């Protein structure tokens, strides 16, 4: 008998991976957590039946959500990470020696525990002394912060279930206040390809544009996410993601990355016409879609 994991991307589209065996399954206080082993993508994590990461392609997502803001900010010392209990964002951040402290806010302790046990390549730096894990709601945590962080990385799940509050106007406004005067926020911005996902993109973009003076969107190709075409949001109080990029400074670090480089950094902000039209549509609107 063959075992397959299948995720419904739309009412008419499904994505499937053949599974060797299931390593873990449990219902936490917040969500169902599953870990599978597969030949094609290695181990992979799902939450409530939705793909979060695979060992084969997680480097794309984590490199793009971390190195883009880190290559732009000239002096990132204190970082807030919301979500990201799998540890991939923290792993990439720990490459930067100048970082003094990372506050990781994850709502579900079991996600961290499971990833440390079953996905050690991703969760390998969660025990670093610079990392401070807070098990609470990211929306509530950020309300208490003001003028505190150089960079905020919002590695949320999709805009429903436990991650729903991380896509609200209130949340983005609180992130703005939590950043220092030259702070940068990045977030996963969903996929623009399928209609329902495109509406989620538009809503997030509209709310961020209303909160930050500089707001741009960039892209990456992530094979196991819906349509494979994924967007990220870059929002800043001061720095432009391309004009303020210092490629020489980042390149001399000598980091070995498998996806990100400073040439791709510039190109990632060059969006297809259909995506630009989606974004312009909400930028011109008085009300959210």
Structure explained in plain terms:
The protein is α/β, with parallel strands linked by helices and about 290 residues long. Helix content is about 30%, strand content about 30%. It has nine helices and 13 strands. The chain has helices spanning about 60-70, 90-95, 110-120, 140-145, 170-180, 195-210, 245-250, 260-270, 275-285; strands at about 5-10, 15-20, 20-25, 30-40, 40-45, 50-55, 80-85, 100-105, 130-135, 150-155, 180-190, 215-220, 230-235. Strands 9-8-7-10-11-13-12 form a seven-stranded mixed sheet, sandwiched between helices. Helix 2 links the parallel strand 7 and strand 8 (about 100-105). The radius of gyration is 18 Å and the shape is globular.
Question: How do the strands and helices of this protein lay out in sequence?
Answer:
Blueprint: E1 3-8, E2 14-19, E3 21-27, E4 32-38, E5 42-47, E6 50-54, H1 58-72, E7 78-83, H2 88-93, E8 101-105, H3 109-118, E9 131-134, H4 138-143, E10 149-155, H5 169-178, E11 179-188, H6 195-211, E12 214-221, E13 229-236, H7 247-251, H8 262-268, H9 273-283
Parallel strand pairs: 7-8, 7-10, 8-9, 10-11
Antiparallel strand pairs: 1-2, 3-4, 4-5, 5-6, 11-13, 12-13
Helix pairs in contact: 5-6, 6-9
